[in-house]
Each structure stands twice: as structure tokens, then as C-alpha cells.
Amino acid sequence: MIELKSNNFDAEIANGVTVVDFWAPWCGPCKMLTPTIEELSTEMTNVKFAKLNVDEAQDVAINYSVMSIPTIIIFKDGKAMESTIGVLPKATIKSKIESVL
């Protein structure tokens, strides 16, 4: 899984489908979601998975109107296509990703 920062965010999401997990180390629900995202990243090899720590890249979080975490935004060729907020079942997240493919 790729660690995104303000300086590499745009380049990393520019091509293909990228699933970005907006999180913070102090966020309990974020920690609950991490294993699900890691499982999906090993199953869906045609999709790029990345994490963005909102404390370290507040500018990016603000740019995408991330007000609650965990938030997942699915990008296709740099454009936000789908998003979810909160801890959701793996099947729900996978279905959202597949809808963008």
C-alpha cells in the first residue's frame, strides 16, 4: 500500500483506478478498516491502494472535503468517482471499487 503525502498525491492518482484511504493514527474506526483495505489490495491487483494521513496532509483532505474519517475515495485517472465514510463491510467497498473499473 502506498503512503500518500501532499507532494505525491496528484501523481499517484493520475492514472488508472486508485483507492485512497483517508485516515489518522488516533482514529479507532480507521484502525478497524485497515485489515479490510489490506485484504482488498491483495485481491484486486488491477487497482492501486493508498493511504493518506489527514494530519500530515490536511491540504489534500480539505481539497476533497474530507470531514470525517475513515473516508475512502476511489479515483479514476485523477478524478474522484466514488466515496464512502466510516467502517463498511468488505463486500460493500469492493462493489464500489468494481463500479469504477
CATH superfamily: Glutaredoxin
Oligomer: single chain
**Percent in helix:** 25-40%
Corresponding CATH architecture: 3-Layer(aba) Sandwich
- Summarize the helix and strand pattern as letters: EHEHEHEEH
Largest sheet geometry: 5 strands, mixed
Distance between the termini: 19 Å
- Strand element count: 5
Helix segment tally: 4
Which radius of gyration do the C-alpha atoms yield? 12 Å
What share of residues are in beta strands?
Answer: 25-35%
Annotate the secondary structure layout.
Blueprint (H helix, E strand, L loop, with lengths): L1 E3 L4 H5 L3 E7 L4 H16 L4 E6 L4 H6 L7 E6 L2 E7 L4 H11 L1
Parallel strand pairs: 1-3, 2-3
Antiparallel strand pairs: 2-4, 4-5
General description of the model:
- The chain is an alpha/beta fold.
- The protein has one domain (2-87): Glutaredoxin (3-Layer(aba) Sandwich), CATH 3.40.30.10.
- Helix content is 38%, strand content 29%.
- It is built from four helices and five strands, in the order βαβαβαββα.
- It has helices spanning 9-13, 28-43, 58-63, 90-100, and strands spanning 2-4, 17-23, 48-53, 71-76, 79-85.
- It has a five-stranded mixed sheet with strand order 1-3-2-4-5.
- The longest helix is centred in the middle third of the chain and has 16 residues, at 28-43.
- It is globular and about 30 Å long.
- It starts with a strand and ends with a helix.
